[in-house]
User: What shape does this take?
Amino acid sequence: LVLTISAVVALTRTGGKGSAQPPIHPSTPTSSPPSTPPSSSSNRAAEIAAAQASVQKIVASAPGHGAFVAALNTHTGVKYTAGTIAGNWTASCYKLVLLEILLLQHQEHGTTLSSGETADATTAIENSDNAAGYRLWFDVGRNPGMQALLPTLGLTHAVAEGTDPTFTKLTPPDTLALLTNLVSTKSPLNA
Assistant: This one.
């Protein structure tokens, strides 16, 4: 099964005891799947069923149902999600959330990133550097600064909470929105 897909597989810790939701079945595509090289429709259906079963097996094996898979075909708009529907802690993905928020803040104010912000953003993203990530968290205004702009970025279920940005919770649709912001012409980010 060959598709042009941007995908995120997140095996993250759930936000505390009892907060995880049980895995859900993959969502039904909202449009027809793209055409693939000639194969019978029964073979295609079998390939899709096998792929979905494999994803469910991976998701079900995560402790506390703390995993989700989210994929988007950027050509057709077809989305696929499986796993927990509860928000999962972002872990290192918070750095991308912070970078998008920082860019949006500067965009709204008509300013550019300072040399320190640029250095921290580069180090946080390229090296997954937590110290640089924490400095970005302070730069955006910590949780209140994050929460104020999450909906603008399309992260409508995301919650910035706790004393650490890794405790920000994202759902599968939030994660797809976060990545889509990087490649879509409809992104709220114009830089």
About this structure: The radius of gyration is 18 Å. The beta strands are 6-11, 67-72, 79-83, 88-89, 169-170. The chain has six helices and five strands. The longest helix spans residues 41-60.
